């Protein structure tokens, strides 16, 4: 004989071949949301085990509606069938089992809220927001500094000698006048500075100093967020932090949408993350595929000779995949992960001091395709 097990918002129900209810195991009223969340996460809950154990005494075959694999169940009588006869009968006769659409909608609404709260409370989500904030702050600071340099040059054009933006802003924000700036950094300015009397009024100077102070505070916020990212990476992904650094590691996690998702990616995907446009162009027009994406920011990849970058990027992607999986699943730390990677890079550079014939040909082909594109663009412009 065969029976059919299904579940609803109240618990697990079992039906015989005549759609008669033979057994039920209901969820505790205050744990319904938690039980449904566990089922969605592909966990076998207590009530499911209990109903399987009870019906297996009298039935030879058990058909169960489940999102889990057959190997997750130890009972040999079970077969997974979604939907099955009992589940269809239940859904067509909700009123018979004291279920109404309003109650079901309310439960699933609360379940959605629970899942959103649980998801947003995970630490990697805060890390993603922090690294995205860094990118936005960098963009904002670069625009604001461009404006303050142009503006402050009306009062003190010699300040353009200071090329470092942080030093430039710090000097203006901490020193009110031209004389104070020169005293703070006398070596940076020439002796023959032309000084005009009443070259700027007090109100203009005050507003420029306030503007510089706001940029300086923004730079301080950026440093604080960087420290926060470093702290988060040390607790969430210590192996990835050791291998690629906190900033690049956080960018990889952010691009993947979470550390667990990054851990599930194959190394080939990790290698080209951030180079999606180049990948789609390759698929569409047949151009050469990208060799690296975000991981190009790693100094060992960026600083390598052009013919070795692909090899190093591929190896780094493999190391990243292993490091993230260690962070997510085993929670063990390999202190030598960065050192081992550097040794491997040195070996690649030592074994490949010069480009091979194939790499030279590829470079020539690449330059030819670039020239063709330029010619095509020029023709379009002439037309």
Structure in words:
The chain is of the alpha/beta class and 383 residues long. The protein folds into three domains: 2-120, Nucleotidyltransferase, domain 5 (2-Layer Sandwich), CATH 3.30.420.220; 123-232, Helix Hairpins; 237-367, Serum Albumin, Chain A, Domain 1. 62% of the residues lie in helices and 6% in strands. The protein has helices at 32-40, 46-55, 85-92, 101-120, 123-152, 165-174, 178-184, 202-236, 238-244, 246-256, 259-264, 267-272, 276-285, 299-302, 309-330, 337-351, 357-382, and strands at residues 2-7, 11-15, 21-26, 61-64, 78-80. Strands 3-2-1-4-5 form a five-stranded mixed beta sheet, sandwiched between helices. Helix 6 packs across helix 8 and helix 9 packs antiparallel against helix 15.
Summarize the structure.
Helix content is 62%, strand content 6%. With 383 residues, it is an alpha/beta fold. It has three domains: 2-120, Nucleotidyltransferase, domain 5; 123-232, Orthogonal Bundle (Helix Hairpins), CATH 1.10.287; 237-367, Nop domain (Serum Albumin, Chain A, Domain 1), CATH 1.10.246.
Task: Name a few traits of the molecule.
Helix Hairpins, Nucleotidyltransferase, domain 5, 383 residues, elongated, 5-stranded mixed β-sheet, 62% helix, alpha/beta, Serum Albumin, Chain A, Domain 1, single chain, 3 domains
